[in-house]
Write a structure and sequence with these properties.
By secondary structure, the protein is mostly helical. The chain has helices at 3-13, 18-25, 28-44, 48-57, 68-82, 99-103, 124-142, and strands at residues 94-96, 118-120. Strands 1-2 form a two-stranded antiparallel sheet.
Amino acid sequence: MNHKLLARLEKETGVTDLVGLLAKKLSPADLQSLLMAVYAERTAVLSPADLLHQYQYDRFVKPATTDAGAMRMFDQLAMEVTDGKFEWLELSPVAPLGTCAAMATVHQDKVMATARNSEVLSDCTNVLALECALRRREMLVTNPKSAESVRL
């Protein structure tokens, strides 16, 4: 985050080390509750016109420009080509907070975090790796010498 912005926020709020306080002194659940209270206050004053304005100008809330029919055909073709060799999953639109930063080289500034200690899913391979790890762990509990693969 921009150091000038942080300095300005600390000066305006009178709270030194504001980011450190929120990041390290509050539990994730307490930070989540605090952010939810902040967002509740902010949304209490929004009007449908405000939402329309944001929808019109905020690139993050726009529908995808991808042809939905073409994507559906691609998925169908991929399912046919893999011929049951993989399990198909419909992933959640959110992932655990830090998934991209901890599992890849993507800085958290480039990921859309949520107020609920998660982030918008941007790279499904990270979440598929987490799901594979959980399933593999379960296999090893049942059979510690299992060589069975997880295919998602």
